[in-house]
Structure prediction request, 143 residues.
Amino acid sequence: MTNEEVIHKTKEEFKLRGLSQNTEDEYLGVLQRFLRYYNNQSLESMGENEIRKFLLYLIDSQKSSGTVNIHNSALRFIYGAILVRNINCRLIPRQHPALLQRAASRLEKGTDCKLSFLLFVYPINTSDFSRNGLQEAQYPHIY
Prediction:
């Protein structure tokens, strides 16, 4: 499948799924940036390694974790739903915002009552926070 066919199929898939125009525009923008980064190399010839390299480029370019995660989600969608490729998601993990780590620090100090209440409703053990974020094995529903 050519890159142009992938773009066309992506648009069709968004219509079939009833996804928003904003999401379609965002994902197509991600696809264009990904293709531009790899000089319009065929998507079918690329995989997890190229996605990882692209996401690392975004991180090194000081993009926010939210921006990196949108790119991650878009590429997973394109490779999974459009190219019907079984992508190993463990090789392309999501970014964890520093906000979550700061919230854990405030909770440990006992300075955030709202956060304490939220964690009472949705418990997370703050000892599971590490320098790199939550431990994936203990909270797979977050990943």
Q: What stands out?
A: Residues 3-91 form a domain with the DNA polymerase; domain 1 fold (CATH 1.10.150.130). The longest helix spans residues 65-82. Residues 126-143 have pLDDT under 50 and may be disordered.
